[in-house]
UniProtKB/TrEMBL annotation:
Organism annotation: Marimonas arenosa
SUPFAM superfamilies: GroES-like, NAD(P)-binding Rossmann-fold domains
Name of this protein: NAD(P)-dependent alcohol dehydrogenase
Pfam families documented for this protein: ADH_N, ADH_zinc_N_2
Residues making up the signal peptide according to the UniProt record: none
Length: 314
């Protein structure tokens, strides 16, 4: 099978395509023929080995898992012994946050892992939405019905998912985006949309239960006036000089760096939200697997809207 290989940390040029053996599903595993994957911030950070302490999970000196890729959507090709949840021919989607391997024509995943059947109304290439939504959910799940959230950077994979997940929880959403994405944010359900190029969102005179930086371009110090008493600031990156990490320790409950958990449970919940139409993917460019280096370069520009897809199907 064709697969995207990373043998060393570095820029996108570190990647190369290779023919490797199709994996064999073990007991309790399913072999999925991958039709579509994504290239996302997790993939680009893992390729660079950044932040350095994350290498404790991905490999200190070289990547522990050679095949890149986290999100996948495809068809169950074969089942290992003891598999009961899936059958050959099932359309499935999910992610592989521990072993990666989704940038290949086939991937093996545990039947009890982060994988679910694609709801019937959803096209297969629109089901690769897990990574951004998973990271968004770790912040949004702190919201109760009727509470409010401001999402800075609501046009990327994490931000577009956060708007929809917050609305699904019955929260009031204020989205901060650039001029190109004002209509998009409204269409996703944001009740108030601010253009950061013409308005200082930190000076709007409102406060929120949660302020979420979905792109890592602001800070707690810039946003703290936006927080209600007991409100929470969450960022999807470490902040200047890793300030979000030490502020989370010092400010106890006021600052958070979300680390998503329970990937299998999240994917099952996401399937239900997709089925009901409450969450859908927002997509930017799509690349053939032969152009994977260009896909990584584009994601690293930080200018994508929503999700960048990578096609694996021949």
């Amino acid at each position: 099978m064709k697969a995207v290989i990373c043998d060393r940390y570095g820029p996108p040029e570190s990647l190369h395509l290779a023919d490797v053996s199709v994996p064999d599903p073990g007991a309790g595993e399913v072999l999925v023929r991958v039709h579509c994957s994504t290239v996302n911030r997790t993939d680009t950070a893992t390729l660079r080995g950044h932040p350095f302490f994350a290498r404790a999970m991905t490999g200190w000196w070289r990547p522990r898992h050679r095949i890149t890729g986290m999100d996948f959507a495809g068809v169950v090709e074969r089942c290992g012994a003891g598999v009961e949840r899936f059958a050959p021919g099932n359309r499935v989607f999910g992610m592989s946050p521990e072993r990666f391997g989704a940038h290949a024509e086939f991937i093996c995943v545990p039947q009890n892992g982060a994988v679910a059947v694609i709801p019937d109304p959803v096209p297969m290439d629109e089901a690769v939405i897990c990574e951004g939504a998973w990271y968004a959910s770790s912040t949004v799940k702190r919201l109760a019905r009727g509470q409010s959230i401001l999402i800075y950077g609501a046009s990327g994979a994490i931000g577009t998912a956060a708007v929809q997940l917050a609305r699904a929880r019955g929260a009031h959403v204020t989205a901060v985006v650039g001029p190109r994405h004002l209509s998009l944010a409204r269409d996703l359900g944001a009740g108030q949309v601010l253009d950061y190029t013409v308005e200082d969102f930190t000076a709007i005179g409102e406060t929120f239960d949660v302020v979420m930086d979905a792109v890592g371009h602001t800070s707690y110090f810039a946003c703290r006036s936006l927080l209600k008493p007991g409100g929470l600031y969450c960022a999807t990156d470490l902040g200047p000089v890793w300030s979000n990490i030490w502020l989370a320790a010092l400010r106890g409950g006021r600052v958070g760096v979300p680390f998503p958990t329970d990937a299998p449970g999240f994917v099952q919940d996401l399937a239900g939200l997709m089925q009901s139409g409450q969450v859908k993917g927002v997509f930017d460019r799509r690349f053939a697997v032969d152009d994977v280096i260009e896909a990584f370069r584009f994601v690293e520009t930080g200018h994508k809207t929503g999700i960048v897809r990578l096609d694996l199907a021949a």
